[in-house]
Amino acid sequence: MPLVSVPRSRPRPPTGARPRISLRLCLVALLGASCLGGLVHAPVAGATDGGSGGERALRAQLRDLVDTPGGPPGVIVVLQRDGAPRVLRAGVADLETGRPIEPADHMRIASTAKAFSGAVALRLVQEGVLGLDSTLGRTLPRVPRAWRKVTLRQLLNHTSGLPDYTEAPEFVELLLADPRRTFDPRRLLDFVADEPLRFRPGSQYRYSNSDNIAVALMAEAVTHWPYEDLLERIVYRPLGLRDTSLPLGYEMPEPYMHGYSVEPPEPPEDVSEALSASGVWASGGIVSTPRDMTRFIRGYAAGRLTSEAVVREQRRWIEGASEPAGPGRNRAGLGIFRYDTRCGTVLGHTGNFPGYTQLIAATPDGRKSLTFSLTTQVNKTLTPALLERLRTIEENAVCALLRGDRR
């Protein structure tokens, strides 16, 4: 039996040839985050530092990143202060056509989707439907006895100790047998339902995909609304997100920036539609655009979706890094991370998925924001050196944003 059941129709992907995708790629996409934790400090600035962190230097760094062996075929950065957004980009959205990336192009937002589940949960906390101390056992009575004392707060700041379902052998075997398989997202935690907690809840930090699946299930249980409808009511409509959705299949809406597996000396492989999003659901399955993500992070970081009292709870920082690590020193809050850079502090989230790497961040008042999207997957497991270089460039982007330097 599923841990919680909400009736939904599940579209099946069309039959046909499936793209080649390596074992390594599948596993890194879903398992790479689970072994990371603790506080992450800023990398040492190197040749890509760019000095003042101005936009001209940042544009050159983006071009260099695209030209780097193993680098992304395309990258887009949207910087917005009080006025119109400024778009910096390099490379292309599609290697076959050479089309440049546009802010309205769809993309997989990966684990930045965890900020969306955070937004839903915190709104329900404000409305009194959930509490930060609400437990899994009280909200989802069918969860294993060992999990029952885990609280919503611990799920949102990754101190729950829940075993990560993406590490379960059965889940991995099913994924590798059919990367486009449509999982029932409300049964993902069943893969680890017979496992104990990894540690006592609240005693340590460990980034886990299971946490945000549980958050979405709790939200559904107390509202009796499907999570997809809660996203529409609580997040999409209030923030004006017109091109954001949570699909269960593998197909991307047009237009979209193609995501690639880049493993020199092999040519880049288009993996945009290689995996179904159903296997990550509330933990990383959302599809959006740089334009919508800019709107989202400006509202979310500023606390526009909830109350000041809830925002204060959200910003009780603990040691913990997003995956992949963001710029500067990383610390974790409830569904959001704090990035302390040499030029100042921004709040946001990162993510990675086959073909895509994401950073969204904004100042705590939401008036300055950046959206940073790559068309390949970069993380500590796959490309550690490239990740450190990326983090330096991301910090330079934060500096360009905060200083307002367009030179």
Detailed description of the structure:
The protein has helices spanning 23-31, 55-67, 113-126, 136-139, 152-156, 169-177, 209-223, 227-239, 290-301, 308-314, 384-403, and strands at residues 74-80, 86-91, 107-108, 260-261, 269-270, 287-288, 318-319, 329-332, 337-341, 344-353, 356-362, 369-374. With 407 residues, the protein is α+β, with helices and mostly antiparallel strands. The chain contains eleven helices and twelve strands.
Helix content estimate: 25-40%
User: What percent of residues are in strands?
Assistant: 5-15%
Order of helices and strands: HHEEEHHHHHHEEEHHEEEEEEH
**How many runs of DSSP E, i.e. beta strands?**
12
- Report, as a whole number of angstroms, the end-to-end distance: 59 Å
Oligomer: single chain
Structure summary:
Helices cover 30% and strands 14% of the residues. With 407 residues, the protein is of the alpha+beta class. The strands form three sheets. Strands 2-1-12-11-10-9-8-7 form an eight-stranded antiparallel β-sheet, with helices on both faces. A two-stranded antiparallel ribbon has the order 3-6.
Jot down its keywords.
disordered N terminus; 407 residues; single chain; alpha+beta
Q: What's the arrangement of secondary structure elements?
A:
Elements: H1 23-31, H2 55-67, E1 74-80, E2 86-91, E3 107-108, H3 113-126, H4 136-139, H5 152-156, H6 169-177, H7 209-223, H8 227-239, E4 260-261, E5 269-270, E6 287-288, H9 290-301, H10 308-314, E7 318-319, E8 329-332, E9 337-341, E10 344-353, E11 356-362, E12 369-374, H11 384-403
Antiparallel strand pairs: 1-2, 1-12, 3-6, 4-5, 7-8, 8-9, 9-10, 10-11, 11-12
Helix pairs in contact: 2-11, 3-7, 3-8, 3-10
